Amino acid sequence: MFSKVLIATDSSPASLAVVGCAKSLHRLGTGECVLAQCFLIRERVAFPDQIKAYIESTLDRQKGILERQGLRTTVVVNAGLPGTVIPRIATEQNCSLIVVGSHGHNLASEILLGGTATEILHQATKPILIIRLKVDEDTGQAVCAGESCDFMRHVLYTTDFSDHAQRAFAYVGKLVKCGARRVTLLHVQDKARLGTHLKDRLEEFNGIDRERLEMLRDRLKDMGDAEIDMEIPYGSPIDEILNRTGNGGASVVVMGSHGRGFISELFLGSVSHNVARHSEAPVLLIPGRQRGT
């Protein structure tokens, strides 16, 4: 599924937590990882080669963690802005997935969503796995927000039945083939969009959309042995999705996104942006098909 993965990293404890979660990637068919870190242009004052060599040495621990899991690992350190350089490295290294860590709206760091991760989302044309981190109250260290990084336990697929969502559904199928144990197919009847004028047709819309979800369910049944649920709640898509993460909910959320990479979806208030920022579970964002692909 994701044979070669790029992990956007730095030398912080937060990045170490991301690498710890990324160990589970072997369940997705990953055999090779690229640990990629950037240093800013302003840091290239006198000795860029020495800076690069020093950064490479600080990543030895992270590399060792991955290699002990049987993941062949390469370290790539380049100068430049991460939002531009990380997607470029992913393309040059022929990676099929980019992994980044996120503290959501709580903390700021070079690698965390709200900073570098948002920049990467703007530019990337590869799928991105966002791993939500939190600070352990006892140790003060960054850890994965979920109880584990078991991507196969419970996949939550959210769909609006658009072309972008259909592209993301292909990855749900791959997860089922890899051994996903449970899948929830979720379509939210958007209360704000239906408003008062269309609310009386809610039962009609539910019937139509239930048939759509049943078709997706039947396709997944031919791919593996996952337990498959369907849900069509009425409310806010963001709230309904987030309510199903954390506290034993979904172990990964799979969503489609739009535009060149994700730029048109990243405006404040968009569903994918808010889910990526606030989900307790990791979020796998699948970009829309690009021109020429």
Descriptive report:
The chain has ten helices and 13 strands. With 293 residues, it is α/β, with parallel strands linked by helices. The strands form two sheets. Strands 1, 2, 3, 4, 5, 6, 7, 8, 10, 12 and 13 form an eleven-stranded mixed beta sheet that branches. A two-stranded parallel ribbon has the order 9-11. α4 (82-92) crosses α5. It starts with a strand and ends in a 7-residue tail after the last strand. The model is unreliable at 104-114 and 259-264 (pLDDT under 50).
Core attributes:
single chain, 293 residues, alpha/beta, eleven-stranded mixed sheet, two-stranded parallel ribbon, 13 strands
Class computed from helices, strands and strand pairing: alpha/beta
Span of the ends, CA to CA: 18 Å
Q: Given the structure, what is the number of helices?
A: 10
Oligomer: single chain
- Number of DSSP strand runs: 13
Beta-strand content estimate: 15-25%
Name the overall outline.
elongated
Helix content: 25-40%
The largest β sheet comes out as: 11 strands, mixed
Radius of gyration: 19 Å
Low-confidence stretches: 104-114, 259-264
- Strand/helix succession: EHEHHEHEHEEEHEEHHEEHEHE
Mean pLDDT: 81
Q: What is this entry, summarized?
A:
This protein is α/β, with parallel strands linked by helices. Helix content is 35%, strand content 22%. It has helices at 13-22, 48-58, 60-67, 82-92, 116-123, 163-178, 191-194, 202-221, 237-242, 271-278, and strands at 4-8, 32-39, 72-79, 97-102, 128-135, 142-144, 155-158, 182-186, 189-190, 227-231, 234-235, 252-256, 283-286.
